[in-house]
Design brief:
Radius of gyration: 19 Å
Distance between the termini: 40 Å
Order of helices and strands: HHHEHEHEHEHHEHEHEHEH
Number of helices: 12
Structural class: alpha/beta
CATH class: Alpha Beta
Number of strands: 8
Number of domains: 1
Largest sheet: 8 strands, parallel
Helix content: 40-55%
CATH architecture: Alpha-Beta Barrel
CATH superfamily: Aldolase class I
């Protein structure tokens, strides 16, 4: 049975979450995004960004063949260049986990499955738990769950906390990434509050978005979530990872997130074990940027497979 806390204790926890300075967060994020990186450091950052990507397809038309091709891309992003590393994980719907697990077994590239009635989170807790168990049994190494935003926004923090705890338990050996869907939370204060709630309930990662609504990931929201992770780590000693997802399409954007990550959480978070980029179209832009840095000229996107 997942552990719970009393309503009064949870109320104290949430009541202790400090408010976010909106102007300060937005100005700091904008300032950090302007940092320039020189060539050698830029190539290192682009390599790291690839190693942190959760290469994603979450469409109703996804097929076993499409997932198999995505797995091949994850393992060898540029087949003509063996120096390009594999990505961190392939992220797919639960029913397609067996396809990815068969293709990626023993490679080091993880299988991540969305779950818990993705993207809405609007179904019975028992179904969310059952879906999570089935995804892990099918071979998922990681589970990306969505919180019930309706419950959160109506102030029912206990329900959100308990569901995360039950899904965490159902995940077993798999790492749990908790998606806040920040575009629906309304305020930075809510983003920080949801971040603390998810971490206290057992999240291994907190993630910005499903990628299905706008706005998705933004740098100010990422900064607020990273600061929550930093403060949670200072207070509890527990390490929690961070995953921005949705709308991250260019190498320049990916590097901006790495800069904010380094400045907020430090070099210890510059690793796929603590940072992921959820993306479906980012990888090719990074590959083109690497070619430009190496040769001085962009290579056409036609030279790379479609993610």
């Amino acid at each position: 049975m997942a552990s719970t806390v009393s309503i009064s204790h949870l109320g104290t926890l949430m009541g202790g979450v400090h408010t976010v300075d909106q102007v300060g967060a937005e100005e700091r994020a904008a300032s950090l995004a302007k940092r320039s990186i020189k060539k050698s450091a830029k190539l290192w950052a682009l390599d790291l960004a690839i190693r942190c990507i959760d290469l994603t397809t979450l469409e109703g038309q996804d097929t076993p063949g499409k997932v198999a091709a995505l797995c091949a891309k994850a393992l060898r992003p540029d087949p003509s260049d063996p120096s390009i590393p594999p990505v961190a994980a392939v992220c797919i719907y639960p029913a397609l986990v067996p396809v990815a697990a068969a293709r990626l077994r023993g490679t080091g590239v993880h299988v991540a499955s969305v779950a818990t009635a993705f993207p809405s989170g609007q179904t019975f807790t028992s179904i969310k738990v059952a879906e999570t168990r089935e995804a892990v049994a099918a071979g998922a190494d990681e589970v990306d769950m969505v919180i019930d935003r309706g419950a959160f926004l109506s102030g029912n923090y206990q329900k959100v906390f308990d569901e995360i705890g039950q899904v965490k338990e159902a995940s077993g050996r798999a790492h749990l990434k908790v998606i806040l869907e920040t575009g629906e939370l309304g305020t930075y204060d809510n983003v920080r509050r949801a971040s603390v709630l998810a971490m206290a309930a057992g999240a291994d990662f907190i993630k910005t978005s499903t990628g299905k609504i706008q706005p998705a990931a933004t740098l100010p929201v990422a900064l607020v979530m990273m600061e929550a992770i930093r403060d949670f780590h200072r207070e509890t000693g527990r390490v929690v990872g961070f995953k921005p997802a949705g709308g991250i399409r260019t190498a320049k954007q990916a590097i901006a997130y790495l800069v904010v990550l380094f400045e907020t959480l430090g070099p210890g978070w510059l690793t796929p074990e603590r940072f992921r980029l959820g993306a479906s179209t980012l990888l090719n832009d990074i590959l083109m940027q690497i070619q430009r840095e190496r040769t001085g000229a962009y290579q056409s996107g036609d030279y790379f497979t479609i993610d």
